[in-house]
Amino acid sequence: MVRPQPRERARAEFAEFVSARSAALHRAAYLMVGDVGLAQDLVQEALTKTYVAWPRLRDKANAEAYTRKAITTTAISWMRRKSWAGERSTDAPPDRGTPGHDDGVASREWLWAALLELPPRQRTAIVLRYYEDLTEAQTADAMGCAVGTVKSQVSAGLARLRDRLGPSPVWDDILPLTPTAVTR
């Protein structure tokens, strides 16, 4: 019986990892950058970095954490570039009427637009904490910062979102009341 070479085995392990986790990684990237094409590019770049580092990863179970960190740091560096600093204009401000059942989608669209207006680190912290459901420690590891920084970025981001969106009982269902409402 012919045994696969270590390089072939590593390629197969990496291909299995990509197949199993690429959808979740793409979702996280999309939430960070807000554009499908850029998210695909971001995931591709992060997976390239992971592939290069694959032989050095001691525990392949940490491959997703490594890739998420690559996505996060790359997204933040992309968002810091001047091309990301432009304003986003709309034809008209969103209606602030009391939303009903059929306005749920519009409310989430408005929240999404407000999320895209946050500074990169605040947006990333909120996406990783609340959309990806990472702990504060996991978020800090992915962002390459201290847990206290995650807490302050989430707090400031949620405060900006609440100020931007104004008071509404609908937002209480979408946004956490305080950054400490969900703790781990």
Please characterize this protein's 3D structure:
- α3 (63-80) packs across α6 (136-143).
- The chain folds into 2 domains: 6-83, Rna Polymerase Sigma Factor, Chain: A; 91-174, Arc Repressor Mutant, subunit A, CATH 1.10.10.
- The longest helix has 28 residues, at 6-33.
- The chain has helices spanning 6-33, 36-53, 63-80, 104-116, 120-131, 136-143, 147-165, 169-174.
- The chain has 184 residues and is mainly α.
- The chain contains 8 helices and no strands.
| Classification by helices and strands | mainly alpha
**CATH class term of the largest domain:** Mainly Alpha
CATH architectural label of the largest domain:
Orthogonal Bundle
Number of strands: 0
Which value, in Å, is the CA radius of gyration?
19 Å
Q: What percentage of amino acids are in beta strands?
A: under 5%
One letter per element, helices H and strands E, the order comes to HHHHHHHH
How many domain regions? 2
CATH fold-level topology of the largest domain: Arc Repressor Mutant, subunit A
Given as residue ranges, the uncertain stretches (5+ residues, pLDDT < 50) are 179-184
> What number is the mean pLDDT?
80
Index terms:
single chain; 184 residues; mainly alpha; Rna Polymerase Sigma Factor, Chain: A; Arc Repressor Mutant, subunit A; 2 domains
